Amino acid sequence: AHLDRIAAVDGDVHAYLHVNAEEALTTARDVDARRAAGEDLHPLAGVPIAIKDVVVTQGIPTTAGSKILEGWVPPYDATLVERVRAAGMPILGKTNMDEFAMGSSTEHSAYGPTRNPWDLTRIPGGSGGGSAAAVAAFAAPLAVGTDTGGSIRQPGAVTGTVGVKPTYGGISRYGLIAMASSLDQAGPVTRTVLDSALLHELLGGHDPRDSTSIPEAVPPVVDAARQGASGDLAGVRIGVVKELSGDGYQAGVSARFEESLEVLRGLGAEIVEVSCPNFEYALGAYYLIMPAEASSNLAKFDGMRFGLRVEPDEGPVTAERVMSATRGAGFGDEVKRRVILGTYALSAGYYDAYYGSAQKVRTLIQRDFDAAFEQVDVLVSPTAPTTAFELGSKLDDPLAMYLNDIATIPANLAGVPGMSLPNGVSDDGLPVGFQILAPAKQDHRMYRVGAALE
Ligand code: GLN
Hints:
Elements: H1 2-13, E1 16-19, H2 21-36, E2 49-52, H3 79-86, E3 91-95, H4 129-136, E4 142-146, H5 153-159, E5 162-165, E6 186-190, H6 193-203, H7 221-229, E7 237-241, H8 251-266, E8 270-274, H9 282-297, H10 319-330, H11 333-346, H12 352-375, E9 378-382, H13 398-403, H14 409-414, E10 418-425, E11 431-437, H15 443-453
Parallel strand pairs: 2-3, 2-4, 7-8, 7-9
Antiparallel strand pairs: 1-3, 4-6, 5-6, 5-10, 9-11, 10-11
Helix pairs in contact: 6-7, 7-15, 9-11, 9-12
The structure holds glutamine.
């Protein structure tokens, strides 16, 4: 049914870069046969899933939205893909994304943009617009995304889907094509909070192949989602982040947010305002740390080992000239912009002024979270300041594009978990997201509150 749905809608939406039809059907039939034989299967066995194209999949092409990896077929699976396969989940395909996950609109994909199923003239968010659009268009029941500065949550907000960035280290990064290693985190993209919890429990947990993987069991997110669904939030303290509202937030976004606070109050939660004064500097710190780490991570795309190789038109074929020709042809403008920015920020003489200062700001943001979580159980805000904007409208203005992540970035800098869930529609008829943030390793708290609000 999902493959039929993809055939019907994906010509317009373009959520998929690769549809894995044959293997998905084989897995589905195999699971049916095992179920018929009375085998005890995982609860998600047979439920199909779409995977963001930044996650490596053995035998299935993986491009990270870039020409530099066009035609590359990974020889191994990411840990999370191993877990998906072991559970018997058919992999429907790989979803579109901004090149190397750099963007907020999926327009920086080298393979053309994804369109928002709610309005095909609008962006589906980014960088994981493909995963969110696939789920919103009923072209996948579940998907996997990655979130370095908001790429699961902001697409969730603008497509009316649930997106979760677990605590940093909660789901293995082994087999994720790295953007910024200290910020990257994979997570679920679904239509309900409970679906996210089920997927989170499957994908999460310790992985010795990722040195930053949390060596403890996944927090009890499924139980928390079930508990929250009862609608009782008595005794739960919720903090509204003062700095994530006001100027720049669309009126309809703020109105839906206020209404949801009323709903939470009605369910017994105590709502207080909390101030996180250093969040103001989060965007600035992020756009130094992320490009710095990305410029280092992307050095491996050199035309020597895998993917695209371009030799210079004329002159000697030296390693350096092949690298230059390959990277010049293989990377898009946004990737080049960030590699240049990151290389500059890391260069001798500037390191302390830029990268060093940004790391200090990061510590201040972590302290803001620590102080806030002494007062409340979870923090809340709108996920994104606006609803989905028109395709093309921010392409010439990188700063305007970056500002869309103002509310999602603090969580990545501090490593704390974040969830976006649907929060009705704004005055323009487009979906709005409600963000819930919890302390590190307390992911279950946001599932409880999210399921109650849903
Ligand atoms: N939109 C943000 C950026 O462009 C976040 C990206 C992400 O989370 N991968 O960097």
